[in-house]
Design brief:
Blueprint lengths: L15 H26 L7 H21 L5 H32 L1
Length: 107
């Protein structure tokens, strides 16, 4: 290598269809990851513990693979992640408020 630049390679999609598949895969990875996070954080979601852990690991691996290795744009996964975080926070707040209200009315 006679160039002053460091030798490297990168892998990118060569077709628009490939990019769409990568975006879909990153969205699916985000959903799997958040399903696992919700399963770990909530007692209301009844899933076996190994399935929850597998969901987190698989979702994380898909995200790392599509965004890090294949170079898919992280915009869809990031936006979906923010929306899911807000939805889960609202869901938890509503359940806590209902529980608080029930206990307050019971006394």
């Amino acid at each position: 290598n006679q160039s002053s630049e460091e030798a490297a390679f990168s892998l990118h999609y060569v077709s628009e269809r490939g990019n769409q598949i990568g975006l879909f895969a990153s969205a699916a990875g985000t959903l799997l990851l958040w399903l696992g996070i919700a399963g770990l954080a909530s007692s209301r979601i009844r899933l076996p513990r190994p399935a929850i852990i597998a969901s987190v690991v698989l979702g994380g691996a898909v995200l790392v693979g599509t965004i890090g290795f294949l170079g898919t744009s992280p915009v869809i996964a990031s936006a979906l992640s923010l929306v899911l975080a807000v939805v889960l926070a609202l869901w938890a707040a509503i359940h806590r408020w209902r529980d608080w209200r029930r206990s307050r009315l019971a006394t």
